Amino acid sequence: MKHLTIAMAVGTLLIMLCSSCSFMDKMYAAQKIDEVATPIHYTTLENYFVRNDVDCSKQQRLIINNKEDFEKYFGMAAHMGGMPTNVNWNKQFVVALVMPETKRATSINPVAVKVTENNIMVFSYQVKKGDKLSHTMVPFTAVAIDKPATQQEMQIFFLEK
Q: Fewer beta carbons within 10 Å, N or C terminal of the chain?
């Protein structure tokens, strides 16, 4: 119990300190929170693509709460390998990371989603870069997560592992 109280205090303090911090400070805070947070279940969304009318000139970190907003960014890519993963918008929300357009084979793989008792979430992921391509691609990953039981606002950090 003492460790949990300390972890909650550290997490809250880091969030308060980093509300106006630099990117590196926020990354450090995310790493520290990740160390004390509890893993939660998530579902990786499969068979979607980033729409070609989305600005992919810079990285985008997205929190999406409804189908209409999701469809502004992503289209379904049903093929013989399977159907797109279904999202139950009444019970779930989506966390997504869209990287800038590239001519290098790139995959983004979710590693974990963790949360603290004071509603701080860390979405960690790995980026793997491969060979040069003759065309461009937009690397992305998206996960569906159960909505929290409380209506308290949740702060979400993205952490590259």
A: N
pLDDT of residue 24: 58
What are φ and ψ of residue 74, in 5° steps? -125, 145
Measured CA to CA, the distance from residue 98 to residue 54 in angstroms comes to 10
| 8-state DSSP, 87 | -
Query: Within 13 A of 54's CA, how many CA atoms are on the CB side?
Result: 24
Give the tens place of pLDDT for each residue, 28-65.
778 888 888 999 999 999 999 999 999 999 999 999 99
- Whether the CB-CB separation of 10 and 36 falls below 8 Å is answered with yes
The SS3 assignment for 147 reads: coil
The kind and range of the H/E element at 34 are helix 23-36
B/e letters for 126-146, b = 16+ CB within 10 Å, e = fewer, are eeeeeeeeeeebbbbbbbbbe
Per domain, the residue ranges of the chain are 39-160
SS3 assignment for 54-72: CCCCCCEEEEECCHHHHHH
Instruction: List the 38-39 sheet strands across, edge first.
Output: 38-39, 102-115, 120-137, 155-160
- Can you give the pTM of this predicted structure? 0.83
